[in-house]
């Protein structure tokens, strides 16, 4: 059985390819995301804007870190470093 509750402490955002920054992020609550990082999906819902290559527009491509970390969406806050979801997503890009 896979333990989904305990994050893997060997995983760090500093040694990651920011794979979570390629996922579609729906904006469900207001966390203060700057308007120029908000896009509308085909149903009129708010999402994080993504660049033509699929990367989140708020990602600094030089440092691979979020430029709006303090205002990041709730789902980004819940996508815990080293969590089951994080490990699963990292495995898809290797």
Fraction of residues in β-strands: 5-15%
Radius of gyration: 14 Å
Task: Tally the helices.
Answer: 2
Order of helices and strands: EEEEHH
Describe the structure.
There is one protein chain. It is built from 2 helices and 4 strands, in the order E-E-E-E-H-H. It has 94 residues and is mostly loops. The strands form 2 sheets. A two-stranded antiparallel sheet has the order 1-2. The two termini are 23 Å apart. The relative contact order is 0.26. The mean pLDDT is 83.
Write the layout of secondary structure elements.
Layout: E1 38-40, E2 46-48, E3 59-60, E4 65-66, H1 74-78, H2 84-92
Antiparallel strand pairs: 1-2, 3-4
Concise structural overview:
With 94 residues, this protein is mostly loops. The protein has helices at 74-78, 84-92; strands spanning 38-40, 46-48, 59-60, 65-66.
Descriptive tags:
94 residues, two-stranded antiparallel ribbon, 2 helices, little secondary structure
């Amino acid at each position: 059985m896979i333990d989904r509750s305990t994050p893997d402490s060997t995983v760090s955002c500093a040694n990651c390819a920011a794979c979570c920054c390629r996922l579609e992020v729906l904006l469900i609550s207001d966390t203060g995301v700057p308007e120029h990082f908000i896009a509308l999906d085909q149903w009129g819902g708010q999402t994080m804007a993504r660049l033509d290559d699929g990367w989140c527009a708020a990602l600094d491509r030089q440092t691979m870190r979020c430029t709006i970390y303090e205002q990041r969406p709730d789902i980004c806050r819940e996508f815990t470093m080293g969590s089951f979801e994080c490990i699963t997503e990292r495995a898809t890009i290797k």
